[in-house]
């Protein structure tokens, strides 16, 4: 069974599982802008793509396995009528390719129709599912999105949409950014700790909610702002405006710092920060914390590029000991020393460890003239299993590098993610089982350094208390079975709903 795939990259890095979008327009079909939006979010999920629209009378849905470009034909888009709609791209969990979990999830029930796109992961979905099953709900998938849909549908039997969602928010625990469509009304919801991103934009003839602002750029719109943690945003029918309801307010947020480091597009603005500039700043801080003098600084393409550019800039201003460079000091050269084969990528399947190790050679080729006889610092954003780093060091040494120093623009990943990122298990995570010195020895680099957690918080201009740092501290902002928390959180009591007799 395939155990790994990637999209355009080559690393064994963590993978985002989903991207969501919702649109309300004046009087043109939302299908095409949704389709373009999903293209803009393709990096967040490549297993399946889907769009659900509503024309004021009925829902239309097309959800397909595969990339956006393969999932929709002209006829499919033409059949998706209606000026409101939601969309979704999904990445599979490790080893699974499962059509029943493709989204948006849609369901018709007594109070109308519901469509749901979810980015994130609930940690108490099983408890709610069990309770709803006991109340007679039948589930078609094992995903947590269907649990949210059933819970909202149930609440809609005796509440309006806003109260129904609020009631569900009081029961679900975990990470969620949602684009929901109830009949022809689109709403967006971000979990009370704002773990996954969601933003609002204005289009010429309507409004859009999306995981990343790059979607809004793609549609020639203007970013308005992030959806606030715990906020529900309703896009008015006819694209006339939007209403905001702050349903829950927590003292601290738990933004996923990895969005800025790794997942999001560099051209997206998340939590008011351009991701590209954050990565450059992380690179600068990496130089300040652990800079090493070398002839050449090069990125691991494409993931390390912004970090390496910030690192090289800082390296040309001060020496590794923090002294200003003398005029005759030529500093370091910033160069692309590894060329990526862009045509090995998205469907590359690596069934065995041996073949996974071969992947780097297939995807990257060193430019010998920038490497041979030189001391090289190579910059990447993360190390997960270490396999790729080992291959990279060997690739550079085979190309004639005299020394290879590796610098990583994030802290060591020591624990898995339960919030919707496919990060690998503790057994697989090299930093969960080895010290930095041992990792350096394993990957056969001349030196290795990671960025500190404080530097990440400083680059994001957030306190540590407002970030999710679960994968680098092993302490999570949610109440997760068998794990410790970094704040005062606990799961809601489930099992308090009365049975209803209506057919929902
Ligand atoms: S555990 Fe890591 S990857 Fe997961 S949400 Fe937290 S910061 Fe992001």
TrEMBL record:
<feature type="domain" description="Glutamine amidotransferase type-2">
    <location>
        <begin position="18"/>
        <end position="238"/>
    </location>
</feature>
<dbReference type="GO" id="GO:0000287">
    <property type="term" value="F:magnesium ion binding"/>
</dbReference>
<dbReference type="InterPro" id="IPR005854">
    <property type="entry name" value="PurF"/>
</dbReference>
<feature type="binding site">
    <location>
        <position position="381"/>
    </location>
    <ligand>
        <name>Mg(2+)</name>
    </ligand>
</feature>
<keyword id="KW-0408">Iron</keyword>
<protein>
    <recommendedName>
        <fullName>Amidophosphoribosyltransferase</fullName>
        <ecNumber>2.4.2.14</ecNumber>
    </recommendedName>
</protein>
<comment type="function">
    <text>Catalyzes the formation of phosphoribosylamine from phosphoribosylpyrophosphate (PRPP) and glutamine.</text>
</comment>
<dbReference type="InterPro" id="IPR035584">
    <property type="entry name" value="PurF_N"/>
</dbReference>
<feature type="binding site">
    <location>
        <position position="303"/>
    </location>
    <ligand>
        <name>Mg(2+)</name>
    </ligand>
</feature>
<keyword id="KW-0004">4Fe-4S</keyword>
<dbReference type="GO" id="GO:0004044">
    <property type="term" value="F:amidophosphoribosyltransferase activity"/>
</dbReference>
<keyword id="KW-0328">Glycosyltransferase</keyword>
<feature type="binding site">
    <location>
        <position position="468"/>
    </location>
    <ligand>
        <name>[4Fe-4S] cluster</name>
    </ligand>
</feature>
<feature type="binding site">
    <location>
        <position position="417"/>
    </location>
    <ligand>
        <name>[4Fe-4S] cluster</name>
    </ligand>
</feature>
<dbReference type="InterPro" id="IPR000836">
    <property type="entry name" value="PRTase_dom"/>
</dbReference>
<comment type="pathway">
    <text>Purine metabolism; IMP biosynthesis via de novo pathway; N(1)-(5-phospho-D-ribosyl)glycinamide from 5-phospho-alpha-D-ribose 1-diphosphate: step 1/2.</text>
</comment>
<comment type="similarity">
    <text>In the C-terminal section; belongs to the purine/pyrimidine phosphoribosyltransferase family.</text>
</comment>
<feature type="binding site">
    <location>
        <position position="471"/>
    </location>
    <ligand>
        <name>[4Fe-4S] cluster</name>
    </ligand>
</feature>
<dbReference type="GO" id="GO:0009113">
    <property type="term" value="P:purine nucleobase biosynthetic process"/>
</dbReference>
<dbReference type="GO" id="GO:0006189">
    <property type="term" value="P:'de novo' IMP biosynthetic process"/>
</dbReference>
<feature type="binding site">
    <location>
        <position position="256"/>
    </location>
    <ligand>
        <name>[4Fe-4S] cluster</name>
    </ligand>
</feature>
<feature type="region of interest" description="Disordered">
    <location>
        <begin position="481"/>
        <end position="504"/>
    </location>
</feature>
<keyword id="KW-0460">Magnesium</keyword>
<keyword id="KW-0315">Glutamine amidotransferase</keyword>
<keyword id="KW-0479">Metal-binding</keyword>
<dbReference type="GO" id="GO:0051539">
    <property type="term" value="F:4 iron, 4 sulfur cluster binding"/>
</dbReference>
<feature type="active site" description="Nucleophile">
    <location>
        <position position="18"/>
    </location>
</feature>
<dbReference type="InterPro" id="IPR029057">
    <property type="entry name" value="PRTase-like"/>
</dbReference>
<dbReference type="Pfam" id="PF00156">
    <property type="entry name" value="Pribosyltran"/>
</dbReference>
<dbReference type="Pfam" id="PF13522">
    <property type="entry name" value="GATase_6"/>
</dbReference>
<keyword id="KW-0411">Iron-sulfur</keyword>
<dbReference type="InterPro" id="IPR017932">
    <property type="entry name" value="GATase_2_dom"/>
</dbReference>
<dbReference type="InterPro" id="IPR029055">
    <property type="entry name" value="Ntn_hydrolases_N"/>
</dbReference>
<feature type="binding site">
    <location>
        <position position="380"/>
    </location>
    <ligand>
        <name>Mg(2+)</name>
    </ligand>
</feature>
<keyword id="KW-0808">Transferase</keyword>
<keyword id="KW-0658">Purine biosynthesis</keyword>
């Amino acid at each position: 069974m395939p155990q790994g795939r990637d999209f355009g990259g080559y690393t064994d890095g963590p993978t985002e599982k989903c991207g969501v979008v919702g649109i309300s327009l004046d009087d043109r079909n939302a299908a095409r802008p949704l389709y373009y939006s999903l293209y803009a979010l393709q990096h967040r999920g490549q297993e399946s793509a889907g769009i659900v629209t509503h024309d004021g009378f009925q829902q239309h849905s097309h959800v397909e396995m595969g990339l956006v470009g393969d999932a929709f034909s002209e006829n499919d888009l033409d059949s998706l009528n209606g000026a409101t709609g939601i969309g979704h791209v999904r990445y599979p969990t490790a080893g699974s390719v499962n059509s029943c979990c493709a989204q948006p999830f849609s369901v018709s029930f007594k109070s109308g129709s519901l469509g749901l796109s979810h980015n994130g992961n609930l940690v108490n979905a099983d408890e709610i599912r069990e309770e709803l099953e006991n109340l007679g709900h039948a589930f078609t998938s094992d995903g947590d999105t269907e649990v949210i849909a059933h819970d909202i549908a149930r609440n809609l039997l005796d509440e309006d949409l806003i109260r129904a969602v609020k009631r569900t928010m009081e029961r679900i625990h975990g990470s969620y950014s949602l684009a929901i469509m109830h009949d022809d009304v689109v709403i967006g919801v971000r979990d009370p700790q704002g773990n996954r991103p969601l933003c609002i934009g204005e289009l010429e003839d309507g409004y859009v909610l999306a995981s990343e602002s790059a979607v809004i750029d793609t549609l020639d719109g203007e970013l308005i702002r992030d959806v606030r943690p715990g906020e529900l945003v309703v896009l008015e029918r006819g694209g006339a405006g939007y209403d905001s309801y702050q349903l829950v307010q927590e003292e601290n947020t738990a933004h996923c710092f990895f969005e800025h480091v790794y997942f999001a597009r560099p051209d997206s603005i998340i939590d008011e920060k351009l991701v590209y500039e954050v990565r450059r700043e992380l690179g600068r801080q990496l130089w300040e914390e652990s800079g090493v003098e070398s002839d050449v600084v090069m990125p691991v393409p494409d993931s390390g590029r912004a970090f390496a550019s910030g690192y090289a800039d800082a390296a040309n201003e001060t020496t590794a000991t923090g002294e200003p460079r003398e005029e005759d000091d030529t500093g370091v050269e910033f160069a692309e020393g590894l060329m990526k084969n862009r045509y090995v990528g998205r469907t590359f399947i690596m069934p065995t460890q041996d073949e996974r190790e071969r992947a780097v050679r297939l995807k990257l080729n060193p430019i010998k003239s920038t490497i041979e006889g030189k001391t090289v610092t190579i910059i990447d954003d993360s190390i997960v299993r270490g396999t790729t780093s080992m291959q990279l060091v060997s690739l550079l040494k085979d190309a004639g590098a005299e020394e290879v120093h590796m610098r990583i623009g994030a802290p060591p990943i020591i624990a898995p993610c339960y919030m919707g990122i496919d990060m690998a298990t503790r057994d697989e995570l090299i930093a969960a089982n080895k010290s930095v010195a041992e990792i350096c020895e394993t990957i056969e680099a001349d030196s290795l350094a990671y960025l500190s957690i404080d530097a990440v918080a400083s680059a994001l201009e957030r306190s540590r208390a407002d970030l999710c740092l679960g994968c680098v501290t092993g302490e999570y902002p949610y109440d997760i079975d068998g794990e410790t928390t970094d704040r005062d959180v606990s799961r809601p009591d489930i099992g308090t709903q009365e049975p209803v007799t209506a057919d929902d």
